[in-house]
Each structure stands twice: as structure tokens, then as C-alpha cells.
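Hi Prof. W.,

I finally got the subtilisin prediction working! I wasn't sure whether to trim anything, so I left the full sequence exactly as given:
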Amino acid sequence: SALLQVSAMVARIALQAPRNREDGVGNWWLMAEAMDMALDIGVDIVSISIFGELSKRSSNWILGKAFRAATDQDIILVACAGNHGKAADTYYPCALPGVVCVASLDMQDPLRVSSFSNYGNSVDIAAYGSGVYTGSGQYASGTSSSCPLVSGAAAILLAMGVKPEYVAGMLTYNVDRFASPLRPLKKHAGALNPLKAVRMAIDFPVLRGAR
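And this is what came out:
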């Protein structure tokens, strides 16, 4: 697709938070350290395909400083909503301020939230996450597959010269809205539509400028 072709041109840096258990599970402190590393490297977009439940107080204590520093530097933060089929309000880092939280859409119905996807007022946008063909040649399902599609769309806008502070708003504004009474999203949220966002960037040059 055009999205994959363009996003493939973006330089990518893979950061993996160290894991301290044999089952591959790390902890929140290590996520904060990985975010600090991303800040040091000077990345433009952080795509976070990991999630877990955490209290609001604990999330602010452990993750707040690193994520606030990222948003202060106009780094675009995109995170998956989680795959437990319930409200994402207690799932982090998705629920943190300034993070674009991504739910999964069903491949059979592009305007339906996947049954496994988390949902709710923390979710800003939804993208395909069911039966996604990956770079490894396998099919995968989950909000971890939805998240990179939104990050790739953000990369397209940056490549067009869109100012970083406008990118998230352009993506979440230029969506295909749909009714989802059983798995509602944030008001005015909808399905990712990169083409609409690209057209907006073309039609409104004021959104573009030197980085």
C-alpha cells in the first residue's frame, strides 16, 4: 500500500526495553528508561506496541516525567490500546496525556472495533489490527499491529514538512467516523484515513514548515 511504501523510507530505530523475566515481561521503570533513550537519540516518533494496567498515580510517578519530556520536545507518541476487550482508561502508556491511543479495527468490517481491542474515552483513533500481514511474512492480530499504521501515517506527514505539533491532531481529525455502541471510542474518534490527512497538508500550507 502507499502507506507502507512511504513509511518504509523513514529511518527506524528499534528500542527494546530490557526484560528481567524469562517470559519476556519487563517493568514500567524499564519503559521509562527506553523513553529517556529515545529522547537522547532525538527521534521524531515513538511507536509503542506494549501495554499494561497501572493506576493513574503510579503511571504519573513512573512514566510521567519521561513522557512529558517527550511531548515537550514535540515527539509524536503513539501507543496501542491493549487487547483485553475492555475500557483502556487504566491501560498505559496509552492513557497518558499527549499519547495517541490506537484501537484495532476488524479486517472483515473496516468500521468495526475488533472484539479483542480495548476501547473507551482514552482511545483517539482506530486502525486495522486483525489479520495484518507483517514484514516477517506472517499474519498478526492485535492493537500492537494497529499502532505502527498510525505511526507510519504520522511519518508521512512529517516527511511532507508538517510541523510536529500539528501531526496528531491532523490524524485524529481526518478520520472515517463510525458508530460503535458496544465498544465506543473517544468522541469524534474514528478510523485512520491517511489520505485525508495528506490532502489537508496539501490544502493548508500553513501546516507545513521547516522543522
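The beta strands are 45-48, 52-53, 76-80, 91-92, 99-105, 125-128, 132-133, 139-140. Does that look reasonable to you?

Thanks,
D.
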